[in-house]
Amino acid sequence: MERNDTSTTDFILLGLFPGFQHVSLLVYLILLVYLIALTGNSVLIFLIWVDFHLHTPMYFLLSQLSLIDLVYISSSVPKMVINYSLGKNSISRIGCGVQMFFCLTLGGAECLLLTLMSYDRFVAICNPLRYPIIMSPKVCFLMAVVSWAGGALNSLIQTIYTMHFPVCGLREINHFFCEMPAILKLSCEDTSDYEMVVCVVSIVFILIPFSLIMASYIRIFLTVLRMNSPEGRKKALATCSSHLTVVSFYLGPGIVVYMTPGSSHTPALDQALSIFYTILTPMLNPLIYCLRNKEVAEALRKVLGKSHRSK
């Protein structure tokens, strides 16, 4: 990678696993994952929009999740692929701050949204008679607004504070995008107090949501076990297991990266874990919900059937 023609204030992104021999193969695989995520999430948003059977609170929240994933993966992968293709690895300080802001906004919004989606399933299964009242269109809209606004507000504060630290020596970020823990490692000031603040914020955005989600699903599973209808039990378990799979892939790695001291894990581990929640999860979400959800699969069949008949 070339390092010429870079400003003294620019950062150098060392990219995916520096020193790895087959980086080109890895980049092409991630580009393939990106295209699958782009297609899958776009299709899911389209299906939810055109099929009136999917105009329900659960699918509205799912469309918001797909939109978040669509922007989330687009905030890091295109820049990484372009840098690799052009043989450049620099990013301006402003560009780095903007990328960090978007990543933190979307990451925080997804944490909040996954929690609200678990509440939606809790009400639907444990209190079905009051579900239309509790999960009204106004409430669903407010849930989406709270997710996006909460993520953006936290991100704005975190980004400004992280970027104000002075950087000494080499401005090399041992990562493929400007992630906050990787930036903090470049500071020539003691960031231990701020890392404690990050840990507290992570409790609010990761640990508490994870705890609420698990509490919701414990109640859901207890309710499902008492169901008389085998078909209803099967449908409830299929929907909830899809959500739990997404939560595990997303929040698990996030807990390690943001809630443990940076010195306790290597940059390679940070990169591997961040690939899960920034790249793999946005690709897996639409696949998990489509493959394990009969209503989405039926909507896709109808759209494909109409397309086939029109030819």
Describe the protein.
- This protein is mainly α and 311 residues long.
- Helix content is 74%, strand content 2%.
- It is built from eleven helices and three strands.
- It has helices at residues 23-50, 57-74, 77-86, 93-126, 131-134, 137-163, 180-184, 192-225, 230-259, 267-291, 294-309, and strands at residues 11-13, 90-91, 172-173.
- A three-stranded mixed beta sheet has the order 2-1-3.
- Helix 4 runs antiparallel to helix 9 (230-259).
- It is globular.
- The mean pLDDT is 87.
Largest sheet: 3 strands, mixed
Based on helices, strands and strand pairing, what is the structural class?
mainly alpha
Q: What does the overall shape look like? A: globular
Beta fraction of the residues?
Answer: under 5%
State the end-to-end CA separation. 49 Å
pLDDT < 50 runs, ≥5 residues: none
Helix content: over 70%
Strands of the widest sheet, in order across it, are 2-1-3
How many DSSP E strands?
Answer: 3
What is the residue-averaged pLDDT?
A: 87
DSSP helix count? 11
Rg to the nearest angstrom? Answer: 21 Å
The helix/strand order is EHHHEHHHEHHHHH
